[in-house]
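Methods — Computational structure assignment.
A single polypeptide chain was analysed. Its primary sequence is given first, followed by the predicted tertiary structure written as structure tokens.
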Amino acid sequence: MSGFNVSLDRLEVYPRTIYKTIANTVERTVTDTKRWGIGIQVGYGYNFGSRRPGPYVGIGVQYSLWRF
């Protein structure tokens, strides 16, 4: 400001702008591609020996449709 009888009419103050760039890179390597396996099974099914439904516990072959 310069001059004779100078006054300040308005003062504007802006906050400092900060830009943050966040870059996340996630690499996932699938090493186990086996879908077939042998495991313990528990369920309910038809028993051909007694000719009626009943619980089942045993060992069986399984195929994985989805992986988590």
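Note: Strands lie at 36-47, 52-63.
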